[in-house]
Design a protein that fits this description.
Length: about 1000
Amino acid sequence: MKRASSFLTAICVAACLQLSGGFARADDLADEADLRFQLGAEAYQRGDYKDALSHFLASNRLVPNKNVVFNIARTYEQLRQYPEAYRYYSVALESEKDAGAKRRIGQAMKQLASNVAIIDVETDPPGATLYVDRKDLGPRGESPRQLGLAPGSYKIIAEKQGYEPASHKVERAKVGQVATIRLKLRPILGTVRVEGAATGATARVGDGSFDASCVVPCSLPVPPGRHPVLVEKKGFRTSTVDVRVERDKTITIKPDLAPITGSLVVSTDETGALIEVDGRPEGFTPAIVKVPVGKHVVRVSLPGFRAVERKVELDPEQQEKVEIALTQNEEVIAASRELQSVEDAPSSVSIIPYRELRAMAYPTVAEALRGVRGVYGWDDRSYVSLGVRSLGRLGSYGNRLLVLIDGHPSNDNWLGSSYVGYDARTDLADLERIELVRGPGSVLYGTNAFSGVVNLVTRRAAHTSGEAGVSTNLDGVARARARANLKLGKDAGAWTSVALGRSSGRDFFFPEYVADTPPEIAGHARDVDGFEAATVSGRVWWKFLTAQWFFHRYEKVLPAGEFETVLGDPGTRQTDTRAFVEAKAEPRLSKAVSLLTRVHLNHYRFVGDYVRDPVDGGVETDRFRGTWTGLEQRVVLSPLSGLKLTAGAEGQLHFQVEQEAKDDGGTYLDETGSAGRPYQVGAAYGLLDVTASERLRVSAGARLDAYSTFGRSVNPRVAVITRPYDAGVLKILGGKAFRAPSIYELYYNDGGATQIASPDLSPENIYSAEIEHSHRFSPTVTGTLSVYGNYVTQLIDFEGSGTQAEPLQYQNSKTPLVTYGSEVEVRRDWRQGWMLAVSYGLQQARFLKNDSMKALTSLERDPAKRDVANAPTHLASLKGAVPILSRDVTASTRLSLEGPRFDRYENVGEDPQGRSKTFAIWDVVFSGFEPRWGLHWALGVYNAFDWRYSLPVSAEFRQRALPQSGRTFLASADLTF
């Protein structure tokens, strides 16, 4: 005890010295505080602790001093008032800066801990004023703080300006134990709701009164009162809004952010391209676009061209020029049954784009394809047909070429005929483009995709509108059409159209008939060759679901006396009626899996009336009715980047296959009803596409077709597509295709009078190889060079003389046919209304001696055969378009040249084989669009030279060749409203 007293005396003396130094410079209060301190120290020394406490408390009230506080704590400790001692030790510790003194105070508090109940109080946020039980008893300091109290229960109260008070009840605090409490103080706030055009900006209180921010649109908690709210966004000027906030209320502000902008001057060599900045449409080229400063992605796109993206960075008030030369990106579906660029397609492809269809006002598919490399046509005044790369057999009705309508085969199921004239559709106004895929395509489509595939791609509804048009062309053809377009949303729409056409025909003179026709006729056929046509088509789609429909009727008067009919009799005519409905579902289940389900119903009806003299049977009538349905299922897997697997199966049920023929003598062919020839087709296929790198892609696949009429056929295809350098694409292609014998070839007969059935026919086969290289000289000019070869076996041809002793019969020829050649083309894509294309093809065809490898490698001719009929050696064309009259009018032209063709007398021992003459056809068309009225118009002339030429025809005709159309005029007008 004596040691403790000495220690306290030393402390008091030291404190007195410190105080006296401080008080010497103080005023009267300091003097009185000094006096009180000295009196307290004296009382403490003599053990009068109550009197000492009274003087110490008075001194601290007069002039607060940390040392006096410490003495107060010591005095309370001497009086055994431990809670008060603990409280003043806490205050002394809080204000003490000296490390040694803090250590001594801490030791003293540690010694007291066993004599008090400690409540450790923390608050969020800290700095709250603490009270025990009642506020009127005075504060106990600020949090965080340890309160030393007598044992018992207490209510701890915390208050802080701007926050709601918080309290906590401590039950039965015990001596020597620590009770910890944490109080969360809820701020007193109002709410500022920030909305409007400032989406994505950051909003915060600008005066620092409350640390909170949010991203607009959002709600910002703000203390009551007046505050500035700052709204900031990169690339925009900061907006400041002063708000007065009330407690528990919401105020809404909608600040406008003014962008800090620069300018983009965007131009393209082809005007009207869509400009997108960071994914948002901003107009069409050329244009000046104001955009916020900073980094942006500029995307320029135009249908038919590759989209181009450029990254730009703008400073305030900077003007940046973006000049882009667009590169045409022709896309094709028919080559792989999916949309892909022509350069990536595993085939040799040509496209007739919408611009060319409009500019040249092509009346038919055949006219649109005239001048395309490798393609040639002929019109026997019964049907127009097309040949590809020397494969244009007379009398085949184009059954070695498959014609699709949006991917759906449109060839009939009687002869397998393709339709490319007015028998295909009344006009081409519904088409977006025409795709030509050269070479075998059975791996995708089965039969008839022998020499090539033509796909007619219809245009979708861009917006809700109506169309109406009239036109005249060729030999007095008059047409009218109407179309309705309905846009049902981003992924939905529909269109349908109706078109009617007719021609009164023309006059012909056939010298082959002068000798055996009456003098008043003398080889003349007058007012014949007319036709009537009607087309109804349409399409509807919603997301991955699509349905299309098509109906076409074509009635044609035959002028040329074919099938030994009476020349020029208008009763000799043929009527073809075709229709189909197709529905497809193409869902994409994931990035790696997509499906296709296709179901279709088709119908074909043919009626042919052939007028002969009564002694020859009178009027012959041939009829055919075919109805079939089909289902296809396909799955496409992309398990890895650059790898795609396609597998599918297809089935067709031709449940109505009926043909009949009769004349005045009665019915001589009746395969109707139960005597019909229904048949089934099943197919399975698989494709593998591997993109090994940006410069190498390989596509390989095969298809198995099974027919109930003849058996099976397997057809593979392989394509290697490389990019040896940036501007070049090299394609190495190989494959096989087949043509199934048609119902007509298998079963048509007249009881043996002139023709018998051929039920044992096998399919034709073609093996093809090709190398094609294209080089892009500039974004607009491309050159293409290709070499190819085709080897055809089991060719189906007529045998016999057509007499009862030697009736006609279809047979598979044992003589192979080989065709080979080379094509070159240089093309300037459409730019600013300009286009130019020049092409030349050299093609050869010959019958080989036999099917040996020696005959193939040496190209040894069959000594029993002459030159291949209807296969021109030379094909050349020049096409171009140029804008005139301030670009309001486009002048288009096409010059096509063809070399001679040999006629049908291919066999040694027949009449001497003749050939046609070289001819050149020059077409000129002026077209334009008047946007005020929505009027598309065209005026032009086809065969401006009026070049008179004839082309070979098949054995159904007495003539070797028939004259083709001379100079004809066209005019069209179409309104969009």
